[in-house]
Fold this sequence. Notes:
4-stranded mixed β-sheet; 9 strands; metal ion binding
Amino acid sequence: MTAGIDTSGLSGDVxxxxxxxxxxxxxxxxxxxxxxxxxxxxxxxxxxDTAEQDVRAIxxxxxxxxxxEGSEARKVADLYSSFMDEETIEARGAEPxxxxxxxxxxxxxxxxxxxxxxxxxxxxxxxxFHIWIDADAKKSDEYIVYFMQGGISLPDESYYRETSFAxxxxxxxxxxxxxxxxxGLPDPAGAAARxxxxxxxxxxxxxxxxxDRDVTxxxxxxxxxxxxxxxxxxDWSRWLAGAGVPASAIEQVVVREPDFFTAAAAALREVELExxxxxxxWRVVHDAAPLLSKAFVDENFAFYGKTLTGAPELRERWKRxxxxxxxxxxxxxxxxxxAEHFPPAAKARMVELVANLVEAYRQRIDTLDxxxxxxxxxxxxxxxxxxxxxxxxxxxxDYGALEVDPADLVGNxxxxxxxxxxRELAKLGQPVDRTEWKMTPQTVNAxxxxxxxxxxxxxxxxxxxxxxxxxxxxVNYGAIGAVIGHExxxxxxxxxxxxxxxxxxxxxxxDDDRAAFEQRTDKLVAQYEVLSPAETPGQHVNxxxxxxxxxxxxxxxxxAYVAHQLSLDGAEPPVIDGLSGSQRFFLSWATAWSxxxxxxxxxRRLAIDPHSPPEFRCxxxxxxxxxxxxxxxxxxxxxxxxxxxxxxxxx
Length: 651
């Protein structure tokens, strides 16, 4: 067994009592540069790079093997080959989207426009709104269609109104102009200005991200007549016909932002049809740009890469090709990835870790001093129904319906969208499939799904530095243990706590307990609101937007510490390389967040990301944990000091 902590990577100039993040990561931050094709780089991204290289090796081996026509492996090979065939792609230029642009050009009235929105939705062109199918959040054993606001091409509605984004708005209009020129569309500069004007109107109807994460406000169930009433003048029959979706699909729907849909319907009635056609032509070009000839790819990257994120170089073609294959055939690749990179012993160890984290939550909930008996009983009931999924799904997706042509990249992607849309629509009226995964096994991430009350850990994240079969337990609990605790914690954060153990929105809290909970979360909001990342001086964390993730981090690390103690069964952890078990635990947490971010990307994430910047995910969390202060013997003169009465403990 190894320590799992590289002591040579610790800073001798910064004490953990003053800045745990820079003590653990100082040398790494000094020595590493962000790769030219990235806007952010850290432990997660290093591991993602490794997974990407592993998948590349699998894909290229598949291409070389010459598998039978129609097999999944052949589809993987042919799709990748279609992306790597630059000669064919260059020769075709904008021709692959000519039929979609012709469809838009032939629109004669608003009814045609609505039908075209439906048709293009089925081909992967994003429209005025987004739809998807999921379990009903108040009847989680049934599927239902969800509707969500859309229609804008900048990252967030705030980009259309805030002064700080004025330069980006100017650059965006110039970008749209150049893209329309490449597509051969008329009056590109005038059209770009009008598209910006229309998107600005659309954006004014958007809910902001804080309001949009409220699970109660965003659950608005309507029948067909209610949907018609919400969107006067929008011909849903034409949209359904265009998309090839049966009318039964929208007999019952959940609309997340009702105000937006009313405002969008008004814009469809009031804005000149030709302006909408310009906008929809832009959407066609924009969504296809990464798949078209080099001129489109380069211009797309110039704005969405360089301008928005600060990354100076486009990712290598093979990386983008692997991404396309993962998007269309993710679980087909996942089968091959798991066979090579996820041993059964890793899954067994994870089962043990998850069990200890759940038990630690049970013990903490059982002894909370701010929660009453009735709410406590229901919280424990919910905890008892958590479903862990580890590594990979028990049932794999079937890609038999997907046809792949090695000489037709855009067609392959369209057919993939159509196959996945058909797969989703087929769920309606069927029992909810609780074996389904929302991430592929090779993904370096994890998630909690409140409608299934499940915590999911793909094989991709179950690698060092987050999880190491050969590492000391303190290190694993400080990294992947905290990730497990974080995902369980989402079931009890400010929004996840509104779902019961069956996955339904159901207020199982007493009023007094909810008030006590919010008293603590309000303190957490205030702590984060004053934080400003070094990359963006004067710009602060949005404490309300990041609240759920901050609760997850705080609860996750706190509970992981308890779980590690449980795993010791009374034994004292060894001192390794001069570090106690508790020191290794907190250093493992800190090194997991080692990250460098370009200023443009840092600003973008402050606007749209529900996660706090990495340095605060490290330091702001541990300041609230008594065991951190005990481990490193902090005092009032230390930079990491937070007075006991100011520390927030929720779970």
